[in-house]
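Sequence in, structure out. Go.
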Amino acid sequence: MAYFPFFMEISSQEGLIVGGGTVALRKIEKLLPYGVHLTVAAPEFLPEIEEIHGLTLLRQPYSRDLLENRFFVIAATDDRGLNHMISVQCQELRVPVNVVDDRSLCTFLFPALVKRGELSIGISTGGASPSAAIYLKEQIQSVLPENFDTLLSYLDSLRIEIKKSLPDERQRAEFFRCLCALCLRDGWPLSNAALQNELRKFTEGDV
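Output:
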């Protein structure tokens, strides 16, 4: 059964990572750009983790009380028994948990992630083939313009104006689809004349 790809707001939420090694470091690096508050608990930490600004580091063994008020938990230790216990306790408390390298103990998975500004693309094979997910990630990265985030900001800046001109939601969605394709072909931002010409096509029924 496939995992459904929810996109959830985690900015300012409280996340817990148990473990202080390279796997924990990779998870930290993926999560921090999304504005989450991360607590990392382990007896020892990699120097790279200690150097990351904004983390709460707890130099201690895992204990159940660390799960209180967590939005999600990641078990990233090299102790399978401990990871299993963390998963069981999280599920008892209905806290979403990811256990590294053990899909059966996870209630959510980490996708292969492509992020460009507000754009986030998550690729998951349901744990069947992480290598295939990474391959697809690399293919997507190769075709995305490096400045794609600025295109998203440009399109977003037009939303209020376009909503006034095209009140019909389906027509507006089709306009933005065409506008995005035009920008990718010719560059952005469009001149005001070019934008108004595209709008005219829709308002006058030329499309």
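Check: Residues 169-186 form the longest helix (18 residues). Residues 111-144 form one domain.
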